[in-house]
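As noted in the main text, all predictions were made from sequence alone. Below is one such record, for DUF4145 domain-containing protein.
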Amino acid sequence: MKWALLRLFCFARKLFERTRICTTTTLKAAINNLTNIDPIFDYQVDIPTVCPRCHTAVQPDILASFYHVKNNYKILVLDLFCSFCENFFTTFYSIDDIDNVAYHICPAEVLPMKFEKSIESLSPSFCSIMQQANEAEQMQLLEICGLGYRKALEFLVKDYFIHKNPNDAEKIKLEPLGKCIKRIEDERVKILAERATWIGNDESHYIKKHDNLDISSMKKFIHALLRYIESELTFEEALSIDPK
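Prediction:
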């Protein structure tokens, strides 16, 4: 029983660590914690429940708070403390004249992506580009991260087929991604790669052809393709083992 509880705790801990920074809980900022307070200040604000520094689920302590009115915007600043990693971070809230609340967290350290060693060896450029695109997305640079994911997809596909066909390396490098994808033998995986490419291409065009698909769909398709390539590389490794 004790070991079962320990395993459950470790599993829950991992889930917390993978929770996105934007997970929040709605709390009312206490008026007696605010300086320069507007007498009519009474807003619900979102307090982050995941530390942007260590990415651990936590209920941060409010150390200080500041309130200021500029033009038609009310600005609330909270200085917060994470008891887990013992780091400080600040949340900025901007409240417009119709009471829409937007907030920004600073500093926000991006949770790095992890790849299998076989993928890191196959295509270090793919891993690097995916990481940069992921950082852009987590920093809410949503207009450019799709281009990064599209570029990462091309490196993954081409590096895989260069690995499979080293004699055709120069030819594969010059091929359009669509033509390169046709080399995929599994029809289901080919469809995943094609659809991911379509979404990625939309990210660079003025008018999108696939309004019902977005970056999250493209990432899902890329990860499915990634699992396929990982399984192929694992099979190659197993095949290389000679019987004794």
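Strands lie at 24-28, 44-48, 61-70, 73-81, 88-95, 101-106. Residues 117-236 form one domain. These features were considered when defining construct boundaries for the mutagenesis experiments described in Section 2.9.
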